[in-house]
Description:
mainly beta
Amino acid sequence: EGTVENSILFRGVVVQKGATVRNSIIMQDGFVQTGAELLHCILDKQVTIQKRTRLIGPRTYPIVLAKGLTV
């Protein structure tokens, strides 16, 4: 339901309304809650990004989050 641009989403990924994902990779069963913003990120399986969280990595060195984390 959110905005996804130039990104790869694996199966089971949920991007809630109001969330923005750009230039990122979210592996299976990832969950991005309302109002979150991701730019230049790589999320492993089952990562949850909580409401209104902003993760903005440099273009040449993306933010990488390990499996099962909640941020």
